Amino acid sequence: MRVVPKWALLPSGCAPVLLAGGWTIAGTLEGPAYDPVTQTISVLAAYGAAGFWVMTGALVALGACYLLTAWGLRAATLAGRVALGGGGLAALMVALFPAPTSGGSLRHGSVAAAGFTLMAVWPVLAARRGGAAPWGLRLVPSLVATAVMGVGAAWFLFEMQVRGAPGVAERVVTSAQSVWPFVVVASCLLHPRHDQRLT
User: 59, 67, 91, 134: which could join 188 in a potential S-S bond, CB 3.0 to 4.6 Å?
Assistant: First the structure.
């Protein structure tokens, strides 16, 4: 297991702040016409939305944060780092293929679904076996994180189908997905063997 550089704390810690800050500012710019309970984050990044550039910028920055975190998270397995980086690319693609102002979009929906999936499975793919692994890369916490994110994604899909509260479900699951990389990086840096290079 290789050392995780301290700079990885910056992108992993910025991700949840950028995401929440983006939807908060873009929602404020949109005004009372936007309902954060029943409308998704993608509505804020749609062409013509008042907060289009804010939310699009936040998604681009979020994708960059995931990519940088995947690059720095050397203690994780390669499969986990690739999945996290793929989630970052998906965030960039969501910004590149915004949702239309009305109706659905196969490209946007497909990219968003791929992003949800990659961000849900990366914790378990990144896990290392054995007690020497940092807490955030141990199998049980990683399985729990993947399960929580998977349930959150299923909840979001359910809310979209019943036209309930998809905005709430999406914010909960994307918040969990954006916080977990920071938790993993912090656990690696706090791990007693962090200063050693383990094979």
Answer: 134
d(CA 77, CA 40): 33
pTM of the model: 0.91
CA distance 149 to 125: 14
What pLDDT, in 10s, does the model give residues 87-109?
A: 999 999 998 988 776 666 778 88
- Sequence-distant (6+) residues with CB within 8 A of 184 are 12, 73, 76, 123, 126, 134, 136, 137
* Confidence (pLDDT) at 197: 47
Rounded CA separation 199/185 (Å): 19
Count H helices, E strands: the chain? 7, 0
143-177 in b/e burial notation, b at 16+ Cβ within 10 A?
A: eebbebbbebbebbeebeeeeebbbebbbebbebb
Question: Which class for 86: exposed (0-12), middle (13-18), buried (19 or more C-beta within 10 A)?
Answer: buried
Low-confidence ranges of the chain (pLDDT < 70): 1-2, 101-104, 193-199
Tell me which residue of 168, 156, 78 sits closest to 117, measured CA to CA.
156
Q: Half-sphere exposure of residue 61, counting CA atoms within 13 Å on the CB side? A: 19
What gap in Å lies between CA 117 and CA 84, rounded to an integer?
A: 10
